[in-house]
Design a protein that fits this description.
The chain is an all-alpha fold. It is built from ten helices and no strands.
Length: about 240
């Protein structure tokens, strides 16, 4: 368990530091800014790289919504759920703290939104609460469904990290203007704690929608896949046998 939670902490740290770091430090850098496209690829690359680095140890969740979604699909043991989520939150907050220390080292730096997620006035494109909720719900549903499909029996062995990373890239390409893209309560929590104010007030949405979408995907996948297909995987346990 100690190795598993450490893997989840490291993986989530890298996701938040790499993805949010690209948004805070690089997205709008004068003349050479990477923009939305660069930030989207940064998030996808963090998941892809850590999926291979620590995925064989913990399963490579790095996301409370993924952990709960896999649990709802029978792909995560009961005993791993709470420790994984705690480790993911610690990793996200630690990454945000390190990013803050680096970013604040620039003269006249202002945190602005600090890559936090939001709706209404805090949405990059000023999208409504309803629009943001639907976006996060749908994106989280398909992200978890892709994770289950690419790690199930019959999928190309050893290649799951690639479609999962690309799926997260695509999700960001679509939804950065809407919510600044969460699909991950830990990723939302870390930056929100440093952005403060209204970002913390709106944090509830980025727990409710991703978890609901992921758990719905887990339930649908449990129905669509044969039981032995769901259980047979090298990185997840069937919670019924835990």
């Amino acid at each position: 368990m100690a190795r598993r939670v450490t893997a989840e902490l490291f993986g989530t740290f890298w996701l938040v530091f790499g993805g949010c770091g690209a948004a805070v430090l690089d997205a709008a850098f004068p003349e050479l800014g990477i923009g939305f496209l660069g930030v989207a690829f940064a998030f996808g690359l963090t998941v892809l790289t850590m999926a291979y680095a620590v995925g064989p140890i913990s399963g490579g969740h790095f996301n409370p919504a993924v952990t709960l979604g896999l649990w709802s699909a029978g792909r995560c043991a009961n005993k791993h759920v709470v420790p994984y989520i705690i480790a993911q939150l610690i990793g996200a907050i630690a990454a945000s703290a390190v990013l803050w220390l680096i970013a604040s080292g620039k003269q006249d730096w202002a945190p602005k939104g600090f890559a936090a997620n939001g709706y209404g006035d805090l949405s990059p494109g000023k999208y409504s609460l309803t629009a943001c909720l639907i976006c996060e719900l749908v994106m989280s549903f398909f992200f978890l469904y892709i994770i289950i499909g690419t790690t199930s029996k019959g999928a190309a062995s050893g290649f799951a990290g690639i479609p999962i990373g690309l799926a997260l890239t695509l999700i960001h390409l679509v939804s950065i203007p809407v919510t600044n893209t969460s699909v991950n309560p830990a990723r939302s929590t870390g930056p929100a704690l440093f952005a403060g104010g209204a970002y913390i007030d709106q944090l509830w949405l980025f727990w409710v929608a991703p978890i609901a979408g992921a758990m719905l995907a887990g339930a649908v996948a449990r129905w669509m896949y044969e039981p032995d297909t769901m259980v047979h995987t090298t990185v997840m346990e069937d919670r019924r046998t835990a």
